[in-house]
């Protein structure tokens, strides 16, 4: 799989600055929140965040994203503080990346490239690896700059090169050929998954969804005694886990857990992970897990609902579950949560608090 030119194997954690621009469209407070999350992503990727830098300007600069003065200021700090990497919160164009790297003399990536790198590190199954590679190629195709020539060894053969094409055009053709191959392989996997789901016909499918790091895998493990990976990092889980859940009184359902959602989730990722998300799309009931101890939990709920809308499943029967109540010391937060979301269940998967209520609610829904 082609690796990003931005990431190299290093023996130490890379030191980075996080960069955001507050404009008329994206206010400073919103940018600060985004950089807070970007910091967690950078930590998951193995970087050390030295500083978060926000510039306020009417609009982003089409050539450098930042203003010239701010860019020169950052260039000086990069040199003085031995910074290895700049991570921008919003997606950059190939021109902006090229200009910034030439001016600042440091590696430059954006949020999407960072998420793709994390996904590549966490992919375990063949399905996940194919999905990550397709997302990477779809992301880098419009940013192609002569870094993909080695693809000819993977997808070369008759019909992959036209007469008179430049190397860049050839590379683009090779990328599109590779993407078509990956799409075909993922469709085969999805057909296999669909066949397996048909074998379980008659069982209600319940999908666990939620913002990344909300405790979805902990809920899965607590309910089914599964062994899904639990780690206090974003995107610790990429692959789908499916287990049978006994509700009691002879009732059984299939419970699935998959990749978490996040704000500014790149469209290329949603498209590439359709086979994984199909478990959610085709489910009968959704368990929406929320980390109520996170002070941004309302925004996280909105982000998840926006993605469900994009997947055309926002109207699917959904049980809202407020997790991690054991981590809340301020009772006012719980009172506010119950006021805003009166139908939600308030639980702690880690401390096994009110988990039976989840089974009872699922049983009530299926009748």
Coarse morphology: globular
Q: Write the CATH fold name of the largest domain.
A: Rossmann fold
What is the H-and-E element order?
A: EHEHEHEHHHHEHEEHHEHEHEH
Protein structure class = alpha/beta
Question: What is the rounded distance between the termini?
Answer: 48 Å
Q: Write down how many β-strands occur, each being a DSSP E stretch of 2 or more residues.
A: 10
Can you list the strand order of the major beta sheet? 6-7-5-8-9-10
Low-pLDDT parts are 1-10, 146-163
The proportion of residues in beta strands is 15-25%
Summarize the structure.
The chain has 367 residues and is an alpha/beta fold.
Question: What's the helix and strand layout?
Answer:
Blueprint: E1 15-22, H1 28-45, E2 48-56, H2 68-80, E3 85-88, H3 94-104, E4 107-110, H4 111-122, H5 126-140, H6 152-155, H7 167-199, E5 204-210, H8 216-224, E6 241-248, E7 251-257, H9 267-272, H10 274-281, E8 285-291, H11 297-310, E9 318-323, H12 331-340, E10 345-346, H13 356-366
Parallel strand pairs: 1-2, 1-3, 3-4, 5-7, 5-8, 8-9, 9-10
Antiparallel strand pairs: 6-7
Structure explained in plain terms:
This protein has 13 helices and ten strands. The protein has a six-stranded mixed sheet, with helices on both faces. Strands 2-1-3-4 form a four-stranded parallel sheet, sandwiched between helices. The chain is globular. The chain has 367 residues and is α/β, with parallel strands linked by helices. Residues 1-10 and 146-163 have low confidence and may be disordered. The chain has helices at residues 28-45, 68-80, 94-104, 111-122, 126-140, 152-155, 167-199, 216-224, 267-272, 274-281, 297-310, 331-340, 356-366, and strands spanning 15-22, 48-56, 85-88, 107-110, 204-210, 241-248, 251-257, 285-291, 318-323, 345-346. The protein has three domains: 15-117, Rossmann fold (3-Layer(aba) Sandwich), CATH 3.40.50.11060; 123-193; 201-366, P-loop containing nucleotide triphosphate hydrolases (Rossmann fold).
